[in-house]
């Protein structure tokens, strides 16, 4: 029987606040680049994250990966450190990295690859709003 590959995704929502502000830009440049998202008091989002893995479908279990294991990894990497947090103040990674959704996707990817089996993480997709979606595939 030929090897068959499959993809599974798990969706998880979390809430967090942040301020888009780069230490490499002046206050005026930050206001110009980030607009209202540079508000000194920050702003919040109800993010929706899709974690997609790709692997051979196990001929014995019929699964790409046990969803219970994927859920545990998401809890550890996304929910525990990010949910109901101020990304800039509560997550050390963002003390030096602007907390754009692109960089949140990179953060999640870099931490998910450490807890998932090797070479199975396919994509991180984050819905920041209904209209703004970021995808990252580790490239």
TrEMBL record:
InterPro entries given in the database record: 6-PTP_synth/QueD, 6-PTP_synth/QueD_sf, PTPS_Cys_AS, PTPS_His_AS
Transmembrane segments: none
Keyword Protein biosynthesis: no
Reaction catalysis annotation: 7,8-dihydroneopterin 3'-triphosphate = 6-pyruvoyl-5,6,7,8-tetrahydropterin + triphosphate + H(+)
Domain of life: Eukaryota
UniProt binding sites for Zn(2+): 18, 43, 45
The family this protein is said to belong to: Belongs to the PTPS family.
Protein name: 6-pyruvoyl tetrahydrobiopterin synthase
Naturally occurring in which organism (per UniProt): Labrus bergylta
Lineage: Eukaryota, Metazoa, Chordata, Craniata, Vertebrata
